[in-house]
Amino acid sequence: MASSKDKAHDTLDAVIAERLPLLDKLLAKTDVELKDRPFRATFEFIEIWVLEVNDGQGRQFKPTISAEIVTERWFAALYQLIERWYHNRYGESFRATSSRTLTGFVPVWSTAFELAVPREVLQSDVPGETVWLRFPGRVLEAEDPLAWLRSPPSLDQLSQAESENLRSAVNEVAARLRAINVAIMGIPNRDRTLSGFLVSIRSHLELAAKKAVAGGHPQLETGCWDLQMATECAFKSLLHRKAGKFPRTHDLDELYRLAASHLQAFPSEALKKLPKWREAIEHRYGGGTRVDLDEYWTFYMATLRIIESVLAPLVVLHIGEGQVKIARPPWKKAIT
Question: Which residues lie across from 118 on neighbouring strands?
Fold first, then answer.
């Protein structure tokens, strides 16, 4: 005979199967990437349909959306069921599009090397049964970011100074990419315009990194346009949410002027390091002044700093501060 716990589990599965197709359709229409939908869907499911929670520990309450919610056991159970629904619904497509890394780059000996930064961290809890899932907004103490270099150079050929500079660069790029990632994940209630801007930020940053790794002319020049667009989308995201409108301009100085009152802290010196918008437009087609990797690295790091700062006022859910304990799904059995 099935236990009451099993029956409740089956009932919740049925409710998820009934409600999630509509919710998934809404997330798709607002351009939420497939790999991000399980986490977003869990929050939306709670906000729309969960009226009350009895956590089995003497607490009965109406859940509120907050950063702390991700640490709750009941949230973890719901997240697991929803993620499994996505895996069952999309199959290999879900697995293929669920990129677990953020793409960046770092220069070594005037050559760009790709950096694949894990979006999430899984830590074993009960072996073979449960894991802790975390989307960190920084590099954790136990991590070695140098291991995230794809096809790295011979690190033993680096001088001590070069080795220290590389480690510092890898740490900063990884930390900023993660901070931007969890900021985007923590911005709720998006309309199509805001979703489009946020998706574009990720896409342009990834393209800019890949063009650095490809190297040479006109890759670095066209990559400057991607950096321009990533920065522009960040400013326009802020203005759209806070002011309700944004100008149709590529002028980053003008966008900063309009957004300044909404910013808590801003690295204004970083904005001065970027090419002006007219030059960025020329770069879009591989024209304009030739750009070498050292210049491009300066532009790239300035872009990451700006975007992290501009997105900060939009963040409601501080995803990077929590972690979720989940039962290990079947396709993650090998992870330890």
Answer: 101
